[in-house]
Structure formats: C-alpha cells, structure tokens
C-alpha cells in the first residue's frame, strides 16, 4: 500500500493541476468564443449595455450597437433587445440610450425592446429571460465585446435563451494586445466565479 506521504504527494499534485489547468482551460474557452461569429436566423439580437453619458453611449457601447444594427439590417433577427439599467447618478438607462441610438441609425422603434433592468450582466440576462418567456421567444444572438461572449452566452442559456454570439470586432475592447489580454484574464475570473457561485462579479 502507498505510504501516507505518497498519498499526500498525489493529492497535492491533483490540487495543483486543478488550480493551474482549470483557469487555463477557461481562458482558452474565453479566447475561442471571442473568435466565433454566429448569425443564425433568430428571434432577437440581444445587445448588452455598457456605460452611457446622459443618453450618449460610451465608445464600448456604441460599437456594440452599431454591430447589432448591422445584424438587424442584414435580417438576422426582426427585433433588437437593448439591455441595462441605471448606474448611480444616471438619469437615463443604458437600455434607453441604446434604443435611442439604434433609432437614429435607422432601426424601427417598434422593433426595439428596451429592458431597463440590471446593473450587471447576470441581472440583465435574468430580465431578458423574462421578456423572452412573455413573448414566447427562444433564440437570440448576443452582441457584446469578444471576451465577454462566453460568460454572456452562459448566463443567457441559463435563463432559457438558445443563445449564440456575434461579438463586435471594432472599438476599444480590441484595440491593443494589452487590452485583449487583460480582458481575457478578467473574463476567466468572472466566468469561474459565476459557474462556481452562480453570481456575477458586477462586470459588464
């Protein structure tokens, strides 16, 4: 029979392997999902909110909205769902700012559903899931930054949405290698936190 020290050594090896390999695998999945661009015919395009300044979308948000509008214009879905509530001190929700911006781009107002609930991705996806159930929708194309796609899709699927991702390829989220690396590290932690604890780390 193996000696106690041998068992301890094996246990430590397994623990270290799990601690090292799990983040590495998730990080690879974040990177891989960021490279996908799926555009099946769907019930709606779900564009996740980011900061807005008194009704004006931030650069991150603007690029998401422009990409969502391009999908809508190409006939990927007949509706766009804008997502996001208010942060402290805001007068306008992210969802409302996104809706107004899409209308200026040329989207029909009646084709936009503004879900003005949620201060993070998880809260927003819970609210979007409720809207989907009310409208008997099933499928959605999630538009966000590339590195945010894996976690966003997981949260959407956990709320009853048959979700795929078509992330934006332009804007500050993909501008530099440093930004991309930092985003992958952050999203790896965010995904693990959500999967292990079922909660959001309040990152959008």
TrEMBL record:
CDD domains cross-referenced by the UniProt entry: YdcF-like
Domain of life: Bacteria
DUF218 domain mapped to chain residues: 43-189
Pfam families the record matches: DUF218 (PF02698)
Region described as Disordered: 158-177
Comp. bias intervals (Polar residues): 165-177
Name listed for the protein in its UniProt record: YdcF family protein
């Amino acid at each position: 029979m193996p000696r106690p020290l041998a068992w301890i050594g094996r246990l430590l090896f397994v623990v270290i392997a799990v601690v090292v390999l799990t983040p590495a695998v998730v990080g690879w999945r974040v990177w891989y999902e960021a490279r996908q661009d799926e555009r099946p015919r769907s019930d709606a395009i779900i564009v996740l909110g980011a900061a807005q300044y008194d009704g004006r979308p931030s650069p991150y948000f603007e690029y998401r909205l422009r990409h969502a509008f391009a999908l809508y214009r190409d006939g990927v879905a007949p509706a766009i769902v804008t997502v996001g509530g208010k942060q402290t001190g805001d007068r306008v929700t992210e969802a409302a700012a996104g809706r107004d911006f899409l209308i200026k781009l040329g989207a029909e107002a009646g084709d936009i559903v503004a879900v003005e609930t949620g201060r993070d991705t998880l809260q927003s996806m819970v609210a979007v899931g409720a809207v989907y159930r009310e409208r008997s929708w099933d499928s959605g194309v999630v538009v966000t930054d590339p590195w945010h796609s894996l976690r966003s899709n997981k949260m959407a699927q956990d709320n009853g949405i048959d979700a795929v991702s078509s992330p934006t390829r332009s804007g500050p989220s993909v501008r530099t290698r440093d930004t991309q690396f930092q985003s992958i590290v952050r999203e790896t932690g965010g995904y693990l936190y959500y999967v292990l604890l079922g909660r959001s780390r309040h990152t959008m």
